[in-house]
Amino acid sequence: MSTTIKESELPRDLTAFEAVELAYPDELARAERALTSGLAVMIECDKGLTPFLYRCLRDRLKKRGLKSAYLDGRPTTEADPAPGGLGLMATIIGSLREAVRASVDQRLLVLPHLDLLTTTSGGLSAEAKEVIPLLYENPNILWLGFKDPSFRIPKVIETLFPHRISMLGVPRDRLHFLVTQREARKLSREGFRPYELYKYVSGVNAARLRTVLSALSGEDYPADSSHAWNQIREATLQGDLSVPTVRLKEDIGGYPHVKDRIEKEILEIIARKEAATDPGEIERIEKLIPRGIIFSGPPGTGKTYFAKAMASALGAAAIVVSGPELKSRWVGESEENLRQIFVRARQSAPAIIIFDELDSFASARGMHQGSGVEHSMVNQLLTEMDGFRSNEMVFVVGTTNFLESIDPALLRPGRFEFHIPVPYPGPEDRRAILEIYDRRFALRLDEAALEYAVRRTGSIVEGGGRYSGDHLHALCRAIARRRLRSALAGPTDVNAVEEALSENLDRPQLTASEERVVATHEAGHAVVALHLEHAAPIERITIRGDLSGALGYVAYADPANRYVITKSEILDRLAILFGGREAESVLLTDISLGASHDLAVATEMATAAVVQYGMGPPELSVREFGDDKPLAEETRRSIDRATSEILDAQRARARAIIERERGTVVALRDLLLEKKVVDRAAILALGREAKDHG
Fold it and tell me: Does the chain have fewer CB atoms within 10 Å around its N or its C terminus?
């Protein structure tokens, strides 16, 4: 099939029945051959297509002398009305019973609602238990059944139908038979391009396609055909589905590596396919497009947002599904939910199915966790993903915080073959995200406030965890509310950022003497850090306390070396941990219990340096001394002695700095008591002042 077809080669007019004949000639011929050979046939298709297919088959079979009865619950004649008061299923079953037991010669019985009669989410339904014996009762009956792809037919019913034919969507190589000249004139002035149309109608059956295309309005041969394409897209979107309006570069800040991966591996490949003019090249490119992608990372980092941006770039409908909501306690219902989602996506193609919290139902089989329904859901998901046609524009995106728990079968090539990590945002990412929200909420952050917000959100969120994109969004909304309440028109400064971050937190209320102890302790940590070469830069110090119970803390910037840690850095960290305790000892001549956590961390680090990292004294072998390895008593004493020596040396080092820089410690303590929070600029200024006086 050519990528461009002349208008004169298209039909002038076309009915829905003619379109069905032209769209599925091979499938209809297969059904006709099977039925005339006396073999039952089951056709999988949309409900709306069933009457059109039946009429096409009926006309063919009439010519072969095979009569049929269509059991859809309506009376066959005016003289034979349906029993009053009975529901549809009961009426169909009654007609079925009568037809089966009255038939002597071979006769074709058509069940357009075979799925409704026999499908259930659990065991066999009451209707199925009544229908199944009837289907097997009369060997002279020839069966033609129709089922919707959303439903599953019990195995005992499937066995009755040796021929199963699927008519889902419309074949791309038949599409040019289904578009009239009038409709082609609405779409382009350069001839009809079936590949371009197929992108939007791959999951639409032929009868519905005729309804969609015949409703096209607008001028012929338009310079801009977007109006007609928009009509088609709106008509093919199922229910409340819509195409997101999230721009990958403009609406998502930072994460250049994630954006590059999406663009290079997906968007650019699809763009190359749509620009290609050779059918062979198009088919080759289609085989390269990944169908499944997993975004993994901590909560709130924008994994679903990236998937929506991808959908927006493709003009695809986004179906966002919560993993936990898919699961049902009823046997079979969870798998049915999955089937219906995929059917809906295919009918609305191009579409992206976004499974939020994929790990909630797609965890590795054999883990013996959950209710057991997860195993059957994984199997169903594998079946659906393996059923993709290469030319279908349907993608599956999973988001998860626990990539390691996903079933390995889903992670192999051909399924979720792309794994894209979305970590917590780094400094540049946070700046880009804040700049977007600054424009969106008209915050007018000045450069100092923006820089402070970037640094401030590099620390731990009060209460635990790190700052994510969601946290940054919440921060900017809080600033916007403050500006609205105060009717501020000027720029947002550093104080406004800090107040938005901390004003509503329920902090510990310290007495004056307690504040003095905490301020001394934190000043000790900070001053020691300022005088050590391998210490990370200090972002800020606070004695306001936080939600996790800490009465004060020193927040450090991200270290320059994030993946390689040296012995010198470990020793500096140990000295810093002792800084708070030694400051209390020197300035207050007493020690609080607040140093206990520092001691625990320092002991753990020093022990690890000796037993795990080979950083002990020369008399100890350079090896790992694990808990699971038998050790001689002398070796244990050597390890304990080496650990104590490291701790004592770094404590003495910290005390020497505190005693030498006592004036700086006092000045910083007093500043903390006054301001409660001291940022990097004030700390550096204090350090320079101390150096000048020294």
Answer: C
- Reported as a single tens digit per residue, the pLDDT across 397-448 is 999 998 888 888 888 877 888 899 999 999 999 999 999 999 999 999 999 8
Integer-rounded Cα Rg, in Å, for the chain is 35
Phi, psi of 421 (to 5 degrees): -75, 140
Given 21, 462, 522, 569, the catalytic residue: 522
CATH of the domain at 473: 1.10.8.60
Instruction: Report the b/e string of 360-378 with b at 16+ CB within 10 A.
Output: bbbbbeeeeeeeebbbbbb
Kindly state the tokens that stand for 97: 């019973």
Residue 260 has pLDDT above 50, yes or no: yes
CATH code assigned at 117: 3.40.50.300
Cα separation, 261 vs 249, whole angstroms: 13
* 394 phi/psi in degrees, rounded to 5: -130, 125
Q: Would you call 561 exposed, middle or buried from its count of C-beta atoms within 10 A (0-12, 13-18, 19+)?
A: exposed
Q: What gap in Å lies between CA 554 and CA 543, rounded to an integer?
A: 9
Q: Count the domains in the chain.
A: 5
Would you state the pLDDT for residue 338? Answer: 86
Residue recorded with tokens 């210490």: 535
Whole-number Å distance between alpha carbons of 109 and 207: 23
Mean pLDDT across the stretch 502-527?
A: 82
pLDDT band at 1 (very low <50, low <70, confident <90, very high): low
The answer to whether residues 683 and 579 belong to one domain is yes
Residue 20 backbone class (left: φ over 0; alpha: ψ -120 to 50; beta: rest): alpha
Residues 204 and 71 in one domain: no
Tell me: pLDDT of 85 over 60.
no
522 counts as catalytic? yes
For residues 130-161, one letter each, b for 16 or more C-beta atoms within 10 angstroms of the residue's C-beta and e for the rest, the string is bbbebbeebeebbbbbbbbbbbbbbeebeeeb
